[in-house]
Amino acid sequence: MDDLGSLIINVLALPPEERIDFLDEVCGSDAGLRDEVESMVAVYDRVASTLEEEREGTASQRRDSSGKGAGAFTPDPYMLIGRTMGDYRVLEHLGGGGMGVVYKAEKVRGGRLVALKFLPPAAGGEERAQQRFRREARVASSLQHPNICTVYDINETKAGLVFIAMACYEGETLRKKIARGPLPLATALRYAVQVADGLAHAHAQGVIHRDIKPTNVMVTKADEVKILDFGLAKLIGSAQLTRPGARLGTVAYMAPEQARGEHVDHRTDIWALGVILYEMITGTRPFPGTTYQNVLDAVLTLNPLPVTSLRPATPMPLALAIHKALTKTREKRNQRMDHLLAMLQVVRQRL
Predict the structure, then answer these.
(1) pLDDT (tens digit, 9 = 90+) per residue, 259-286?
(2) Of the spans 9-18, 76-85, 194-203, 257-266, which averages the highest pLDDT?
(3) pLDDT in tens, 138-191
(4) Which CATH class is domain 171-350?
């Protein structure tokens, strides 16, 4: 499969509300590539909608049960549904992104439900992507915390497909919650405290996430936060597997140093959590833009509107905590995640 075809499959695997972020990430400033992908995806969606009406209930066309929208087309990139991969029987395709295609499965013995994450078709043959994917499994499995997704196993199919078996959570991403509008202050703080707690634990183990964003934060039905996808995580002191100057991550949540392709550290995650908290409270991103370049320029050069100008009821200590997390010079940000966590906990107690 060519790179364009693989990219289109990865876009189709996502719900519509997550496609913009993904295309920002993979297309960058290549407007021609983005236009071509978006036009092809629009054609697929129209065809899928028509076929759905004519062949309701067929296996090849399915509406997403969580509300992705009418006509959403969910492909099966590896044709795995119904097959057994090692100890797991594949049940359904859940989605995909830049560093993984995810299926829901059950363990043959015991019936435990899991999520199996495979390399996406576009990256499957790249040694660099293979290394990054395997590193994700090693890093994630070393992190044991209530707010970090549990990793059970790493394995490989007979065809050479590497996959990670992870806990499968019932719930929705923070992106879907924010899409419905600003969150109550108490709710936003509850989620932010849990994300900060999980990241503080990871940082203490020498792990930086580097791609914290609402689509990588799952909120379970028990209202417990789970941080997903350490696919871009960098174990401090490990070999640098990414190309010099590479910008791994999603631009709307990148710290300035990350957007410039510079060395990153744990303060990059502090910035990203500041962006998420701003978005949860105001319903808008601090650095909006209609194109990748617009957003990148805003991250590098513009200061966001004060949170209190968009939501006056925001407590001043919370507004100041967000402002400090979004300081462009990292030496002036919170220097440790547990410091930001402590600030958020104090604000939460006083609400």
Answers:
(1) 898 988 999 999 999 999 999 999 999 9
(2) 194-203
(3) 777 788 999 999 888 888 777 777 788 889 999 999 999 999 999 999 999 999
(4) mainly alpha
* Active-site hit among 21, 24, 76, 211: 211
Q: Rounded to an integer, what distance in angstroms lies between the CA atom of residue 118 and that of residue 103?
A: 8
Amino acid at 157: T
Q: Which two tokens stand for residue 291?
A: 């194109």
CATH of 84-167, one of 3.10.490.10, 1.10.10.10, 3.40.50.300, 3.30.200.20: 3.30.200.20
Q: Which of 282, 275, 280, 277 is nearest to 310 (CA)?
A: 282
Q: What angle do CA 213, 217, 219 make, to 5 degrees?
A: 145
Length of the chain: 351
Contacts for 304-313: CB closer than 8 Å, 24+ residues apart: 304/278, 307/278, 307/281, 307/282, 310/281, 310/282, 310/283, 310/284, 311/182, 311/281, 311/282, 313/185
Instruction: Bin 283: left if φ > 0, else alpha if -120 < ψ < 50, else beta.
Output: left
Report yes or no on whether pTM surpasses 0.90: no
Q: What is the dihedral of CA 230, 215, 44, 5, to 10 degrees?
A: -20
Amino acid at site 75: P
Whether the CB-CB separation of 81 and 103 falls below 8 Å is answered with: yes
Check if 211 is active-site.
Answer: yes
